[in-house]
Amino acid sequence: MTIILDPGHGLSNRQEGVFDPGAVSNGIREADIVMDWANDIRAFLQCFGHKVIRTRINNADPAPLNDRANIAHDYQADIMLSIHCNAANGKANGTETFYRGDKNRKLAEAINKSIVDSLGTKDRGVKLESASQHKRLAIMAFQPCFLVELGFIDNAEDRAKLLDPDLRVKACESLAQIITS
Length: 181
Fold this sequence. Notes:
Helices cover 37% and strands 25% of the residues. By secondary structure, it is an alpha/beta fold.
């Protein structure tokens, strides 16, 4: 399989030459968390023999949002996973996964469950792309694509889980197995 991993945000995400950190809480940036997650998922996928392309490889790698789905098209990917962290008021918590189209619901549920089970986060469920804050997600111009909100960066419990390297490795291995089965 060819899998595209999209660690959200980063350099030139919305504006050329400007770094988009995503949500920030207690000095921790979403862009950094999701890069660590993408790298760990990549390692497992490659161990399983799959080709993995990241939309950005580090925080200095420019990755305009509108180019990310095109990367998946260019590589004729089998699946794309966009990785993010949520933020709200510090009281919200949990993991949720967005998808497009009924045919992708079952895999979205498996992806979400693997993260919830690995991290011990609240299950906020799976939702159609139209239920997101943007109603239509540019990243989902490629299909099948799943946008995972791992947890809430501004919730102390979720943030601790997102930053725990042992929990991350456990979740990433589970995710790699789910998206390639």
